[in-house]
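Request: Mind sharing a record?
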Amino acid sequence: MDWKLVASYAVTIAFDVLMPVAVVLWVRRRLGASWKVVGWGAAAFAVSQLLTRVPLVQVAQYFLRDALKASPTFMWTWVVVLSLTAGLFEETARLWVFHKPLKDFRRWRDAVGFGAGHGGLESALLVGGLAALGLVNVIVLSGMDPSTLPLKPEQVAQVTEAKATIAQTAWWMPLLGAYERLGAMAVHIALSVVVLQRFIRGQVRWYWLAVGTHCVFNAMTVVVGKQVEGALGQRAGALAGEGMVTLGALLSLGIILYFRRDEARRDAAASP
């Protein structure tokens, strides 16, 4: 068993859970965002992803599994569909929450708190949970001899392939998932700020801008990562994908800071 890989997974899981807690506490103490906006941000992710989109995607992928393996064109089309639905589901949830439950919470800090709750639940529950499953697979499969299992030949082949994949995984690869959560958190906060402009400025185009940005960010991260992986290997592909996450995070930081200054200017102009 590769104990460095096990340790890497353990660090990643801890980061996925504790990082959003730290961000939420900072947003609460430094910006004064209320628990209500943080809670609604988390609820919006739960409803738009965990309770609706994710189960639908899993069912669809089960029935489309053969077509996805057989046709690269269909696979890339599916990537676009996944990216578009992610944008539509999550940004629509943000829109509804700011329209109804948070209609009295439409300040910049409220959008930041909402995004922290939204991205925080994704990190702690969904991504952290998947990392935990990855750790379990490493521990279980590393000590398993597929030839001794009472399985069909095709099932033994699948287990053998899974063991080979683990053996080829660099010990630091899981840490990229932790790094990605930082970038994803920035993106979630920025998109929340953008959706809020729908109500501040009274223009629906801000909602569609958030949907489009979300879709492009997701799609480009996957496409660039897969293309580089095909040309240079798994490790290079993973690093390329995280490069796109870094770019998205930097752009998101710029968006967040811009609208903070914009709110300050509007407040100053409204003062007597």
